[in-house]
């Protein structure tokens, strides 16, 4: 069973109804939201707009634009890998959750993978809302202990000669992967290339493929 499909998988059988009950953090969040709404301290519409912005308009699109630029502009790529914050700053994408970013390049010899073992530090301003599995304990623990096994569960089988490096994000430093440019994309525009880039490829649990452009 993959981490994507079962981020909270445990030994109980599928027939147990309690497996459908929201997690304790989810219940606490909902209760807090209801209390703040009842007291008139927050507007539910504003919360919905904020979530929509991070899921759809920001989503992985900002990070994808950075990746596409690096693929077509060698000088930008050099600056991005040298000092990501300085290179990204002109795009206006560096919000509170995207400061102190380090970009790591995937190559045929090295595959980088991001995790946050302590909580779920993540560059929201570039990648949008983190997926559930990224915050789940199984991913956070196993990504460090058995990264190749985790990647296989995401459908990514790497050559044994490829070195896998796992980077632990913190409140001070957040990482983003610069995935390899896929074969068959040589004649694509920067905008078309950005459409190929997925959030998972910028976390390092997937590779970019031309054939998956429509599935983004």
Fold topology:
Layout: H1 24-38, H2 44-58, H3 61-72, H4 74-82, H5 84-88, E1 101-105, E2 110-115, H6 124-127, H7 132-135, H8 137-145, H9 147-153, E3 163-168, E4 174-178, H10 190-196, H11 199-203
Parallel strand pairs: 1-4, 2-3
Q: Can you walk through the features of this model?
A:
The protein is mainly alpha-helical and 216 residues long. The protein folds into two domains: 31 residues, no CATH class; 156 residues, Nitrile Hydratase, Chain A. Helices cover 43% and strands 10% of the residues. It contains eleven helices and four strands, in the order αααααββααααββαα. The strands form two sheets. It has a two-stranded parallel sheet. A two-stranded parallel sheet has the order 2-3. Helix 3 crosses helix 4, helix 3 crosses helix 10 and helix 8 crosses helix 9. It is globular.
CATH architecture of the largest domain: Alpha-Beta Complex
Here the CATH topology of the largest domain equals Nitrile Hydratase, Chain A
Q: Outline the biggest β-sheet.
A: 2 strands, parallel
Shape: globular
Q: What gap, in angstroms, lies between the N and C termini?
A: 22 Å
Strand content: 5-15%
* Total DSSP helices: 11
The CATH class designation of the largest domain is Alpha Beta
Q: Would you tell me the overall average pLDDT?
A: 79
């Amino acid at each position: 069973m993959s981490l994507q499909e079962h981020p909270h998988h445990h030994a109980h059988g599928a027939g147990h109804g309690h497996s459908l009950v929201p997690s304790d953090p989810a219940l606490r969040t909902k209760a807090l939201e209801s209390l703040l709404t009842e007291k008139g301290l927050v507007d539910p519409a504003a919360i919905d707009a904020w979530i929509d912005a991070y899921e759809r308009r920001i989503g992985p699109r900002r990070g994808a634009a950075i990746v596409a630029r690096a693929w077509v502009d060698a000088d930008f790529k050099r600056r991005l890998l040298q000092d990501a914050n300085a290179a990204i700053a002109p795009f206006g994408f560096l919000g509170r959750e995207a400061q102190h970013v380090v970009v790591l390049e995937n190559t045929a010899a090295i595959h980088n993978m991001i995790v946050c073992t302590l909580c779920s530090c993540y560059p929201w301003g570039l990648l949008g809302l983190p997926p559930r599995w990224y915050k789940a304990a199984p991913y956070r623990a196993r990504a460090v202990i058995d990264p190749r096994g985790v990647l296989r569960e995401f459908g990514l089988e790497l050559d044994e000669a490829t070195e896998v490096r796992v980077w632990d994000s913190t409140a001070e430093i957040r990482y983003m992967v610069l995935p390899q440019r896929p074969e068959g994309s040589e004649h694509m525009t920067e905008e078309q290339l950005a459409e190929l880039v997925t959030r998972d490829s910028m976390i390092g649990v997937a590779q970019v493929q031309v054939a998956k452009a429509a599935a983004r």
